[in-house]
Amino acid sequence: MRGVLIAAIVLAAFLGSAPSFAQTTGAPATSASPAPSVTPSPTPTPVPPWSVSGFQDVTYTTSLVSNGTFLFTNGGSTRVFDAITGNNTKLPTYTRFVPNSFNINIKKNAPQGIGGQLEETIGSDANVIASYGGAAGTYTDVTQAYIFLATGQFTINVGKFETLAGAEVIESPSDWEISRSILFGYAVPFTHTGVRAVWVPSGKISLTAGANYGWDQLVSTNGLSTLEAAVAYNPSSYLAFNVNYYNGKEPSPLTPYPTGGTIAPRPGSTAFYPSYPPAGITGTIYGTRGLVDVVAKWTPSSALNFALNYDTAQQNNSQAFDSLGNTLVNPSTGFPTLQTVKWNGLAGYANWNVNSHFTASGRLEYLNDNNGNRTGFAQTWSEGTLTLQYVPGVANWKVRGELRQDWVNQPTFARYTSPIGTAAKNNTSLGFEAIYSWP
Question: Whole-prediction pTM value?
Answer without folding.
Answer: 0.84
